[in-house]
Amino acid sequence: MKLCDLTLPTPEENLACDEALLDFCEAGDSDELLRLWALPQYFVVLGYANESATEVNISACRELNIPVLRRCTGGGTVLQGPGVLNYSLIVRTDDSGPFHSIAAANKFILERHRDTLAKLIKAPVEWRGQTDLAIGGLKCAGNAQRRRRRFLLFHGSFLLHLDLGLLEKILPLPSHQPDYRLNRSHSDFLVNLNLPDHTLKAALSSAWNATTPLDQIPFDLITLRVREKYALDEWNLKF
Q1: Residue 141: beta bridge partners?
Q2: 3-state DSSP call for residue 144?
Q3: Among 72, 95, 145, 213, whose Cα sits 20 to 30 Å from the Cα of 21?
């Protein structure tokens, strides 16, 4: 598996990069890959079908100059920025492989990440809800996927040392909650791993045997996706 340790300058470019890499692989220009990135700027990311008016405190985001964007995958709304490590897996969806269905991909990837994280922190890690990882009932990672014909994008975020107080100010309780949340506030539901990002990066790279650097990045396609989608209010605030 190829390794792409790449953080681009803006939130829009980083979201566009995941979709561009998926299209790049689907077109036959690359094999499976693991991307790792962490942007030192706060921004909110809506899941594909989330309604911005109910899932985000838009006025608080504007006051704090925090952009509100939308990704191409499902799941809930998250705060990105300092203290968050993101990963993106792009893998084949062969009928005989471990990623042949949504459920199979969830199981294979989340169990591998659960076991990798448990070894790292020397404590039990749970797979909770549909695609959460948790420690003692507290969520530390969320994930989502998008499927093409031959490849899928499975990506997520690990909380390392995110400012949960800021998160409380800009994100109300989500309209859809996993059963184990029990209507808890963000501060009572989320937990930081308190790990250096380089430690988790190394563990994820090892877990996926991602050692060969990706030597071709589709920058033109990333720029196109930003211009046609991720920089537009018509996309980001469409619901």
Answers
A1: 133, 158
A2: strand
A3: 95
